[in-house]
Structure formats: C-alpha cells, structure tokens
Design a protein that fits this description.
alpha/beta
Length: 319
C-alpha cells in the first residue's frame, strides 16, 4: 500500500481520483485531523481566473484550508508537468520545515507520475512530422490516428481518448522519431522522482452511473454559476489567450470556448461538456486502477472516509 522507499525518509501523501469523486472534501477532513498542508495537483486549478470550471473550493473553504499551487499562474502562461515538479519540489521542503506533511490532492495524474517517477527525456519532433500528422488528422480524423497508435503502442492508447489530439500526436511523434513506443520510454527512463515514503489513496467510485449523474449535475451548476461569462471575461482580460493553450484545453473550458467561437448551440455545448468530463473521469479511473502501490477507496461505500483517516493515521505513525 505504501510505495517501496527506504524507511528513513519523510512521508508524503497522495490523494488522487476522478473528477467529482470527493477528493477535496476528504482532503479538508484529513487537514482537520492531521498536521498536513494541501497541495493542488490539478492542471486547471493552477490558473488564475479558472474558478467555476475548475471546481475550485469556495473562498471560505480555501481560507480555512489553503491549497498551495492554486491560482499559481496566469492562463496565458502555459503550465506543464515539468514546471509542476520544479515548483512543488522546494514547496515540499518548506512544508516539512514547518513540521507538516504535504498532502497532494487532485486529478492530474501526469503531475503525480512526474513527481513520483520522474519525467522521460524524449526527442523533439520535426515541424514537418507534426504538420504531416495534423494534415492526416484533418483528412482521417483523430480517432483514426488513435487507432494507429493502438497498433503501435497499445499501452499509451488505452489511457487516451480518441479525440485527445495533443497526446495522440505526441505519442505518434515519439514512435516515428525513435521507432519505440512512448510507453517504452516511460519504462526505460532513469528514476529521478521523489525518494519519499508515499501513501497513495486512490478514489475509485464503484457506482459508475452515480458518478456520471454527479458529473452532469456539477456541470449544470457550473453553467448556472456563470461558466460562460467566466470564459468570456478571461478572453477579454488576457488578449494573448487562445483556444489552443493548455488552460483553454481543459475540459469544460474547451467546450465553452468553442461555443463562444460560434460552434454549436448552448445545449450542444452543455452536452459536449458533460460527455468530455465523463471521458476524463474514465481516463482518470484507468490511471488510478493501474497506479502502483495504491489503496483503493470507494466513495460510494459507507465509512470510506473513516477508512482513509485510519490509513493516514497508521502511515504517519511510521513503520
């Protein structure tokens, strides 16, 4: 249940799971009971102004339970897993210097992986190759390129949605440039990740239909709270912001951006947003299911928060 690390190293807590599974509520409860500081691991919440669509905790909650690396950069400043590792590493040291334990909570699994396992050093693709892949996608569609990726790199394809343009393109670039699949490079990379003793709590809702209902309800709440106006104001406040930047590729924001560009009706935007969020949750669940040395918790089961608390208490007592 705890990652295989030496026993004389400081503890680190991971809390990961799909969207709308209850991560924030559990993190706040753990912060009531243990000397932890919360660290945001969500690729949308790092951006200032992405409040409603990123489902950030409200102001009162954040005042009581501060989240490091939330509202960290402007949305026209692209953030990445590499930047996350660079930013979080000194933060972990500062938290420990205060006598506290870092509790990393969120659903951006690549950030967790980058910290724990390190980042693979991959070659850059030529502009010609990238243009060729984009031209093929225009003619054949990204699902066709996803099917090609499934033939050459089934491991990577299994965790990507057929319309995940950015990641499909990158995986095919690595295959064409190196002759090896992206999954091979991830396995072969030298370990440069965290040496900490880690307890990973992975939320895995057992009732998929209930999760889908929560996702739809939450997306409707976001629209009612003003998600469309939030994106409209971001477009005005940040003139350099484009729909291709990571902040606006986030689920929900992408669909609203397209709507403001005149692509489809409001009802079509809503449906696309809900479908995209469900697809995101499915990918996140795949990550959690395959995560090494994690404890699975079902938030649809009675007593799951008490179980999580007991696990953290036992872990923090040390081996």
């Amino acid at each position: 249940m705890v990652s295989a690390r030496p026993l004389n190293v400081p503890p680190l807590l991971f809390l990961l799971g799909p969207t709308a599974s209850g991560k924030t509520a559990l993190a706040c409860r753990l912060a009531d009971d243990f000397p932890v500081e919360l660290v945001n691991v969500d690729s949308a919440s790092v951006y200032r102004g992405l409040d409603i669509g990123a489902a950030k905790p409200d102001a009162l909650t954040r005042a009581r339970y501060p989240h490091h690396l939330m509202d960290w950069v402007d949305p026209d400043d692209p953030y990445s897993a590499a930047r996350f590792v660079a930013d979080v590493t000194p933060l972990l040291a500062a938290i420990r210097a205060r006598g506290h334990v870092p509790l990393l909570v969120g659903g951006t699994m690549l950030y967790f992986q980058a910290l724990q396992q390190g980042l693979a050093v991959l070659p850059s693709a030529s502009p010609e190759l990238r243009s060729a892949l984009e031209a093929r996608a225009e003619q054949e569609g990204w699902p066709a390129l996803h099917a090609e990726l499934a033939r050459v790199d089934p491991v990577t394809a299994a965790r990507l949605a057929p319309l995940d343009r950015q990641r499909i393109q990158r995986a095919l670039e690595v295959w064409h440039v190196t002759g090896q699949p992206l999954s091979f490079w991830h396995q072969e990379q030298a370990h440069t990740g965290s040496p900490d003793r880690i307890l990973t709590l992975g939320l895995m809702p057992g009732q998929r239909a209930a999760l889908h209902e929560r996702i739809a309800h939450r997306f409707d709440q976001m629209l009612a709270q003003g998600l469309v106006e939030e994106v409209r104001q971001l477009r005005l406040r940040y003139p350099r912001l484009t729909g291709e930047m990571p902040a606006m590729r986030a689920v929900g924001y992408r669909q609203v951006w397209q709507f403001l560009e005149g692509e489809g009706s409001a009802s079509e935007m809503r449906l696309r947003g809900i479908i995209a969020t469900r697809q995101l949750a499915r990918r996140q669940l795949t990550w959690v299911r395959n995560w090494p040395a994690r404890v699975a918790l079902d938030p649809d089961q009675m007593g799951w928060e008490e179980t999580a608390r007991a696990l953290v208490e036992h872990f923090l007592k040390g081996p």
